[in-house]
Amino acid sequence: MGNRLHQRGSTLIDVCAACVMGSITMALALPWYHDWKERDGRADAVVALQRVQQAQAEFRAANGRYALRLDTLDAALTPYSDKGLYRLEMYSEAPDSFEVHATAVNDRAQARDPSCARVTLRVSGSVIAYEPSLRCWNP
Q: Between 3.30.360.10, 3.30.70.100, 3.30.70.330, 3.30.700.10, what CATH number should domain 12-137 receive?
């Protein structure tokens, strides 16, 4: 009986094929991942703005008008979104209207989402406006 040598391990072609398949997979998955991260960040802004809207509704029910400043609302509200991706600023020119801006913090990843770097909720009486687009509000 002869002694047969059995080759063990991978050939260079096997390694190259695995690298190509991995590269193709990453090329397909990376844009999807970045899109998902942007949508997740937008959701952070939407939740923060909805929280302010709810606090304003409660304040109006108790006081007959909207609060003029963010710090006069619920003590649990902070000037930043939950994940710290957006800074909140509220403006009010009349007792029946207010405007809240969620602006992406410059040194955070969400600032690289130019179309939704500033998300605005504007309430005037019973009219509510969502800006800049519904795309930013429907992550």
A: 3.30.700.10
Query: In order along the chain (139 residues), what is the average pLDDT of each group of 10 residues?
Result: 66 87 84 79 89 91 88 80 90 88 84 82 89 82
The domain segmentation of the chain, as residue ranges, is: 12-137
What is the SS3 assignment for 106? coil
Whether the CB-CB separation of 113 and 45 falls below 8 Å is answered with: no
Report whether 123 contacts 107 (CB < 8 A): no
- Calpha distance 46→63 (Å, rounded): 25
Which tokens hold the place of 118?
């500033």
Q: Where do the H-state alpha helices sit in 64-93?
A: none
pTM: 0.75
